[in-house]
Amino acid sequence: MSFSRKDDSFYQIQFDENIATDNYHGLDFTGKSSVELKNSFADIFKNGVHGFCFSLYEDGQKPGDIISEEQVRRRMEIIAPYTKWVRSFSCTEGNEFIPMIAHEFGIKTLVGAWLGHDAEVNEREIEGLIKLCNEGFVDIAAVGNEVMYRKDLSEDELLAFIGRVKKAIPENIPVGYVDAYYEFSIKPRITAACDVILTNCYPFWEGCNLEYSLGHMKQMYHQALHAGNGKKVIITETGWPSKGEPFKDSHPSEENAIKYFINAQLWCREENIDIFYFSSFDESWKVGAEGEVGAYWGIWDKNEKLKY
């Protein structure tokens, strides 16, 4: 299993021109010093965020390694003062500890089953998700992550998994599927099967300049909102890397990462949008999957030190 970002064709722009949205690009950072930016970040950060995507792996670890409860607990303790929710990506190999420990800290959970080509892995993930739901550790259940984008399963196969989970868990737990915003426009059967729309929005991976990134993310969100036809939309991943190679007109830097964080958080608070920031900690293993930039999406670095 792999939780990495994709190839150069990742998010293709498929905006619906009929969706109305403003062109607000965020705060004007002109003339702001590095110290002023960090102070602004600190003011927002100390007030807390809605949610973080939980980074499981330490330096030298990778998906497939079995992660201990102690390691999950240590990292949860670090992020707990700053978040109301946490998102996990899998229900096996130690990932199952994430929602269990999050609830100990009073943090709500969006828990994902990682689905792919391997039928045996899929079965373990689905059974793991159902178990966690029935034990009371899941507040929102996510059946699959970007399966349609990767073409790992057919629509019918994914719909069968969604239906199976819905039947096996308490009715008060919303069930959804995570994918890029545009997939909910072009896969209406999947959108209809979801109780909640769980959308990943990455202006960076569409080569967007930081100056226009907030307006770009807003368009993504509104497209998913339009596709959902009244269903709640949650931004399950968005972020900006602090280091690494540029992607088209997207440039990683500490300054750009801080600016993106500030704009994203302020907008979502103003509009009452639930957002899971990607990610909590830098993860070194992603260098191989995504290039150098893959390892620098965290708010904390790989040594669990706050970066900004």
Task: Tell me what the structure shows.
With 308 residues, the protein is an alpha/beta fold. The chain has one domain (34-295): Alpha-Beta Barrel (TIM Barrel), CATH 3.20.20.80. The chain is 37% helix and 14% strand. It contains eleven helices and eight strands. The chain has helices at 34-46, 69-79, 97-104, 119-134, 147-150, 155-168, 183-186, 188-193, 213-228, 254-271, 286-290, and strands at residues 49-53, 83-88, 108-113, 140-145, 175-180, 196-200, 233-238, 275-277. The protein has an eight-stranded parallel beta barrel, surrounded by five helices. Helix 2 links the parallel strand 1 (49-53) and strand 2 (83-88). Helix 2 (69-79) packs across helix 3 (97-104). The model is unreliable at 1-23 (pLDDT under 50).
Helix content: 25-40%
Q: Return Rg in Å.
A: 18 Å
Task: Report the strand count.
Answer: 8
Shape: globular
Separate helix tally: 11
What is the class in the CATH system? Alpha Beta
Strand order of the largest sheet: 1-2-3-4-5-6-7-8
Class from helix and strand fractions: alpha/beta
Q: Would you tell me which CATH topology applies?
A: TIM Barrel
Largest sheet composition: 8 strands, parallel, barrel
Percent of sequence in beta strands: 5-15%
Order of helices and strands: HEHEHEHEHHEHHEHEHEH
Q: Uncertain spans, ≥5 residues at pLDDT below 50? A: 1-23
Mean pLDDT reading = 93
What is the domain total for the residues? 1
